[in-house]
Amino acid sequence: MRDIASLTEQEILALAISLEEEHARIYADYADGLRHTFPASSAIFREMAEEENGHRRSLIELYRDTFGEHIPLVRRQDVKGFALYEPLWRLRPLGLDKVRKQAEAIERETRRFYERAQQRTTDAGIRKLLGDLAAAELEHIDLAQKLSQELLTGGAKQNEDAASRRSFLLQVVQPGLAGLMDGSVSTLAPLFAAAFATHSTWETFLVGMAASVGAGISMGFAEALSDDGALTGRGPPLLRGTITGAMTAIGGVGHTLPYLISDFALATGIAIGVVLIELWVIAWIRSRYMETKFLRAAFQIVLGGLIVFAAGVLIGSA
C-alpha cells in the first residue's frame, strides 16, 4: 500500500479520476435508492453525481494533455489514509441520515486529498486543477446544503419526515411490539401453570425459559416468512424476524428470571411485578407509536394479560 507522498503526478491524477468516478456512481446509487421514499433528497444526490462526473471529465482531459491516453489503475484501497466506507448504497431501503453523513465524509476526505496532492505537484496546470477541485469539493458540501434548503422545504420536508417515521414503524416498532406482546403474554400461562403445579422455582424457571426461547424462535420464523417486504415496505425479512424473535424471547425471559430465587413466594411476587412492568411498557409503546390512547392501550393489554395469567394459575392449581 502506497503513501500519498510517494505518488507521482501521473498516479495522483489517476487516483483522482478513480475517486471521482467512484463517488459519481455512489451518489447515483443513493439517488436511485431514495427516489421512491425521499424524492427531494434523491434529487440532491443526482445533482452531486453530475458534479462528480464533471470533475472526472476535467481530470481526464488534463491527464490526456499531460500523460497520454493510458490511465493506470490506482484506487483508494491502494493508498494509505483513505477510509473504508460501509456500502450503504447497496442497501434497500436506504437510511437517509446515514447516507447524508457518509456523503459529507466522502466530500471532506476528497477535499483533503486534493489539498495534499496539490502540495506534491510542480506542474502549474495540475496544481491549478487540483486547487480548483479542492475548492469545488467544499462548494459541493455547500451546494448539498443549499439544495436541501431549497428542495426540503414545506411539504417535501414533511413528506420525507413522515416517510421516515412510517418506515421506522413498519420495520422496527411493529415487529418489535408484536414480539414483546407475544412473549410477555403468551408465556404467562405455561409459566404460572408450572409454578402453581410444582411450587418448584427451578422447574418453573426451566419451563419459562423453554417457553420463551421456543416462542422467540417460532415468532421469528413466522415474521420472516410472512412476506419479503417488497410490496408492504416492511423491510428485510431477516431483520424483522430477528427483531420479533428477540423481543418475544425477552418478553418471556423477563418474568422467568425471578424464579432463579429459591423462595417460591418471593419469586412469584417479583415475577408478577415484572409482568405488570412489561404490560405497562407495551401500553406505552402502543400509545407512543401507534396513536392509541394510553388508558385504552393499558386496559386492552392488562385485560389480555390477566386472562392468560388466570388461565395458567387455574390450570396449575387443578
Brief overview, please?
This protein has helices at 9-34, 39-67, 96-120, 124-151, 154-186, 188-198, 201-226, 237-254, 264-289, 294-317. The protein is mainly α. It has two domains: 4-152, Ferritin, CATH 1.20.1260.10; 158-317, no CATH class.
Task: Describe this protein's structure.
It is a single chain. With 318 residues, this protein is mostly helical. The protein is elongated, with a radius of gyration of 29 Å. The chain has 2 domains: 4-152, Up-down Bundle (Ferritin); 158-317, no CATH class. It is 77% helix and 0% strand. The N and C termini lie far apart (74 Å).
Essential attributes:
10 helices, 318 residues, 0% strand, mainly alpha, 2 domains, Ferritin, 77% helix
Query: Which structural class fits the helix and strand makeup?
Result: mainly alpha
Q: What percent strand?
A: under 5%
The total strand number stands at 0
Low-confidence stretches: none
State the shape: elongated
Count the domains.
2
Biggest sheet statistics: none
Tally of separate helices: 10
Overall pLDDT confidence:
85
Helical amount: over 70%
Helix and strand pattern: HHHHHHHHHH
N/C terminus separation: 74 Å
Oligomer: single chain
What is the C-alpha radius of gyration, as a whole number of Å?
29 Å
